[in-house]
Every structure is written in C-alpha cells, then in structure tokens.
Specification:
mainly beta; 11 strands; about 240 residues; single chain; about 65% strand; eleven-stranded antiparallel beta sheet
C-alpha cells in the first residue's frame, strides 16, 4: 500500500520528542481522501484550495483537474460551515467518445455543513461528525461539456484515537445522489454509495504517515436499485 505524508500542523521542522508533549491533532485532513471528524476550534476561520487531477485514457491525450476554493469557519464548538467555488481545466485530444477541448472554466459552487455528533474526550477515544454537501456544477467533470448537475453528498466521518496523540483510525460512510441535465436536454439520475477505512501514524509533531482503502458502488438510480459497477481504491 502506498504511503502518504501530510503536514498536519504549522510550525518548524519535525523533532523527535515524546508524543505526550504534542498538542491535540486536528484530524480532518490526516487520512487523505478519507475525512476525519475534526471541525476546528470555535471562532476559527480558514481558506483552503484542494485540487484533484484525472489523467490518461485508453487513447489520445486526456488531462483534467477540478479545484475547490473553500472558505470554512466554526461558529460553535459543534458546527462547521464551508462554502466556495469550483474551477476546472480540461485538455482532451483524440480520446474516443469525448470531444476535443482545451479550456479553463468556473465549473460550479458548493456548501458543506458539518455537525460534531460525538466529541472525543479523555474517556472516549471516538469522535463522529455528520456532513452534508450540496453541489451545483455547470461543467461535466469528465468530458468538460456544459451541463446542469446537482449533487447532495451525505457522509459520516469518524475517527478513533488508538494511541494518545500518535495513532488514529478513520472511517467514512458515503451516500451521494445526483441528477444531471445534458446539453441536449437528456436527464441522468445516479448515486454513489460506499465507505472507507484509514490508518494514520503521527511520527513527529507535524508529520503523519498513513494509508487508506475505499470501496464505492455506482447506481443509475438514487434509491440504489440499479447497480452498474464498483471500485476499490488504495492510497
């Protein structure tokens, strides 16, 4: 399994020191694509960017990216609110079933509402957050063509502190229905359902190493009755 490294806290170079002296870890971003339960401190505000790239098809040249420009704030110790814009790029040439295009576009907008349902304490190592993320897209993620797409992601983010300030396990359960109107007026309804498990080891005060596995199923119906395929991803 591939290893991923992330800088999880700002500060100087990593130092070998006793984990008991480290500050509490914000777990939201330490697992990779699996999201932890952390929602930040009350009153905290942050701007982040997050880019996902897709490269390569069976024929021709294919490169596409989508970037989230995100502002998040935590009005209370149990609620985090996020919103922002989506920007996409597509460079497609000679790919079967896709039109050639080279473009950069404002592709949509999103909001996310996160509620800390179970808080980690000295006697409880488990934390659970419920998250809801509506998204509107005007550009298809794969083909780059104009569409009207509406998604509503519902996800459970949980993490378990296995060793104090040192070892964490993360778990996600996801359900995401969506509906898309194409350029010719055709309508497509679909949904994703699945989950993930991840493990992250804090090797220094600001360095984490970890791995994760995702299992996702795709359906051509929001009620999960028309199964079309599944995938397993490791990272």
């Amino acid at each position: 399994m591939a290893l991923c490294a992330a800088a999880c806290l700002s500060g100087g170079a990593a130092r070998a020191e006793d984990a008991s002296s480290w500050r509490d870890l914000e777990t939201k971003y330490i697992f990779g694509f699996t999201t932890g339960s952390g929602i930040g401190l009350e009153g905290e505000k942050e701007f982040t960017t997050d880019t996902i790239g897709r490269f390569g098809k069976r024929g021709g040249h294919y490169a596409a990216t989508e970037t989230k420009y995100e502002f998040e704030f935590t009005p209370t110790q149990f609620i985090q609110i996020e919103f922002g814009a989506l920007g996409s790029t597509h460079h497609i040439a000679g790919v079967p079933d896709l039109d050639d295009r080279r473009q950069f576009a404002f592709s949509g907008a999103f909001a996310e509402f996160r509620y800390l349902a179970l808080e980690r304490t000295s006697s409880n190592p488990l934390a659970v957050t419920l998250a809801f993320e509506p998204t509107v897209r005007r550009i298809d993620e794969t083909a780059g063509e104009r569409v009207r797409n509406y998604e509503f992601e519902t996800i459970i983010n949980a993490d378990l502190e296995l060793l104090k300030n040192r070892l964490f396990a993360g778990f996600n359960v996801l359900y995401e229905p969506e509906i898309t109107w194409g350029a010719a007026g055709e309508v497509q309804r679909e949904a994703k359902f699945g989950g993930s498990a991840a493990l992250s080891l804090r090797v220094a005060s600001n360095v984490v190493l970890g791995g994760e596995v995702w299992y996702l199923r795709h359906y051509d119906a929001a009620n999960l009755t028309a199964f079309t395929g599944d995938a397993v991803m490791l990272g």
